[in-house]
Amino acid sequence: MRALRARASLYALVRAFFAERGVLEVETPILGVAGNTEPNIESFSTSFSGRVDAGTRERWLRTSPEFPLKRLLAEGVGDCYELGRVFRDGEAGRRHNPEFTMLEWYRVGWDHRRLVDETIELVLAALAAAGRSAEIARYSYRELFVHGVGVDPFTAPLDALRAPLADVRIDGDGLSRDDWLDLLLTHRLQPAFPRDRITVVIDFPPSQAALARIRADDPPVAERFELYLGPYELANGYHELIDAIEQRARFERDNARRCERGQREVPIDERLLAALPAMPACAGVALGIERLLMCLARTDAIGDVLAFAFADA
């Protein structure tokens, strides 16, 4: 009952937070005709058995509401958010559940830096409601790696990226540069983040842009951020890419990578690509509700914040 009440209180806080700021709550489809091409994320799919004129029979459970929310932005809905269930295949364990709740919101005319501030405000509000507070630390992706493990993530050779992980059992066959950077982040940097600190990491390598814009710095950077509370990643945000040609190229690169790994190719969301030219300049962020609840409850087990975990569903 404590976990259920904590979730209900957090939902109420989220809705009040955005109502005060004039951000509209919306609801979008859970089943769609396209999946997530990201090679490190697997989508569930199912089949529709009704009338053939209803469209594609194979449908994909969303891994986030991002694509339909962006279509609404292109239709002129303005600042909006969705609080709802998402699904990721293969992610089950002490800290992961294949079905979980995501809060995703978009701010028209904002960049990722401004959205960082609002994301911090929301997390601080949730902490305050639980009688807690947190200090805040901000790093560029480059600063985090240089200070934390002594390597420049943009220029260091692969051997230098592998060296700090020498005592970790890793099958390195087929791992890309970004894979090694992710391992450094999850095995060396994240675990050292203080539990009562909000850590923000901003401006990622262009190869990790996903759906973010790339800024022509020296070196170029993806206008993306991640926010952590203690060692847990809570949120991932972008200054959103609105170039449909570039976005299609990224989806195609994802699928090529999936094929190299022996994974299934995933249908590209053509409706999103058609909508991108009309989408306003904006920033968006997705935040994992269970992760935030785990931090508020001071637990490392996701089952402690669920009514029923995957094994008992």
**Helix and strand string, N-terminal first?**
HEEEEHEEHEHHHEEEEHHEH
Distance linking N and C termini:
17 Å
**Number of helical elements:** 9
Overall strand count:
12
Uncertain stretches: none
Would you tell me the structural class of the helices and strands? alpha+beta
Helix content: 25-40%
Give the overall form: globular
Q: Would you tell me the overall average pLDDT?
A: 95
Strand content: 15-25%
Could you describe the largest sheet, including whether it forms a barrel? 9 strands, mixed
| Rg result | 19 Å
Overview of this protein structure:
- The chain starts with a helix and ends in a 16-residue tail after the last helix.
- The strands form two sheets. Strands 1, 5, 6, 7, 8, 9, 10, 11 and 12 form a nine-stranded mixed sheet that branches. Strands 2-4-3 form a three-stranded antiparallel sheet, with no helix packed on it.
- A hairpin with a 2-residue loop joins strand 10 (221-229) and strand 11.
- Helix 4 (141-149) packs across helix 6 (177-189).
- By secondary structure, it is of the alpha+beta class.
- The chain contains nine helices and twelve strands.
- Helices cover 34% and strands 22% of the residues.
- It has helices at residues 2-20, 66-74, 112-129, 141-149, 158-162, 177-189, 244-260, 270-275, 289-297; strands spanning 24-25, 31-32, 45-47, 58-61, 80-87, 99-108, 135-140, 197-204, 214-215, 221-229, 232-239, 282-288.
